[in-house]
């Protein structure tokens, strides 16, 4: 097994593309071929120990990228290396160094209890017994597996199965863990358990995590770096804060008044967004003014009953990003400290449709 | 001063022994997986036994009509052919294996590709485990029933039993390979049902299940034997066991099976490689 230098990228993709040929009915007996681009020139560099959230609307190309990175799908063009290996050509060697969890698919043996599946994985990945036992002990404790280790996988609940899937993906000590919607369909408690486990795993800095999800709470809880993909292209690569800054998301101050006002107060740098509850509740956006300035200004002008400060909603920003093409095609290299410590980002964001002819 | 970099291959034992350990572990898991379906096992053994009576009486009637010996088989040889055949049916598993096609259709085949074991090796090892379980639970009931109700022949040559064991093992491997190839059509067709129906029909007729292939004239049986894998699935092990031919032909038929096993496994490997090259995993 070839070890990478400590500062070498764990994942490196250059102008990665994938096109599918789809046959479309064009008459009673005739079919025509149509080429559909799923991934359209992705550049991405991920360094050891990073936890990146890879998000995008349905059909954006997330899973296709993940499949190319894991060697399941051949790229149409471009280059990708994971742990220094070309994934498709070296799929078997790469399999020993990565772990993959598909939220919507199972990698466990349907008819076997988890205990047997884990034991089989030890032989499949040729893990020394002591290492296997130590990793399994840790997963059993942290993911609370003991109650259902001897139940066949087909009888497990989704939450239990997902905890089993995570364990199965980690027993051989992978350097990179790819998670494709790992919390999909999970209840709140299971989702929190999975997130807490992943957070702890990422905190050690040994395992690089690439997470695709539609649940942005996963990203907020786990990932300091966010890569947004749309129409097969990277439209944002940086921290969540950088995304808010780029799309002008603002904090909001919600003021509950003692008495309704006929004329709402005007605060410099904080436009009034809306008036609710028959004039008893005012919502201001913090643009150039800080939240404390808005609160102080309000306290001078009106009788306040209660006050609340709302953080910008990541879902609103991302929904805006999905609905419209990215406003600027500029790369957004995150400032140092914006992402996981010791990591640097190289990325090129492109506007969807920019090269369409 | 120049330097020379040489790559030295690791000693064979270092790779082969772990490989066999992995293979054995997957085979063991195949055994355990199929042993969980106990009701299906009982129902299958019962059905095979009932159809054994049906087939046996039909073939004994044919032999009686032909004056005692039909196509070179005595009545006891025919009864042995039927009852051991009924037992072997589940061991080689001619039909009802759609695991690979289902996984291709649902996209779960991606998980197979993400393991550090070649999919053909992994599926083969699992199938050998399944066959081992079937040998214990599906082979013995019909054979014991046949022994109880009919006159069966016992081998007279010393080499018959080892040749039969080898022949059954090869039949399992060849049948696995054929099923793998039929299932693998789903890589291109997305659904292997058409290929599966064709396989079910042709394997039943051409493997010697519906009638012993020796009932066919030589000009049909010989090319069938040499140019297709079908007789190697069921007819060959049964002919080896009932000693239908002389010792030379008996061993030669197993030799043909060895060739077919090698060819089919190579074909599986090649098809899998081509499939992976064009692979499109279904779904998101």
Automatic annotation (TrEMBL), chain A:
It is found in: Cell membrane. It holds the Pfam family ABC_tran. GO terms for molecular function: ATP binding. Gene3D superfamilies: P-loop containing nucleotide triphosphate hydrolases. InterPro entries: AAA+_ATPase, ABC_transporter-like_ATP-bd, ABC_transporter_ATP-binding, P-loop_NTPase. Residues 16-256 form the ABC transporter domain. It is a peripheral membrane protein. The keyword Iron does not apply. Keywords: Antibiotic resistance, ATP-binding, Nucleotide-binding, Transport. Transmembrane segments: none annotated. The keyword GTP-binding does not apply. This is ABC transporter ATP-binding protein. It comes from Plantactinospora endophytica.
TrEMBL record, chain B:
It comes from the Bacteria. InterPro entries: ABC-2_transporter-like. Pfam families: ABC2_membrane_6. Keywords: Membrane, Transmembrane, Transmembrane helix. The chain crosses the membrane at residues 42-64, 76-95, 135-154, 160-182, 194-213, 247-268. Coiled coil: none annotated. This is ABC transporter permease. It comes from Plantactinospora endophytica.
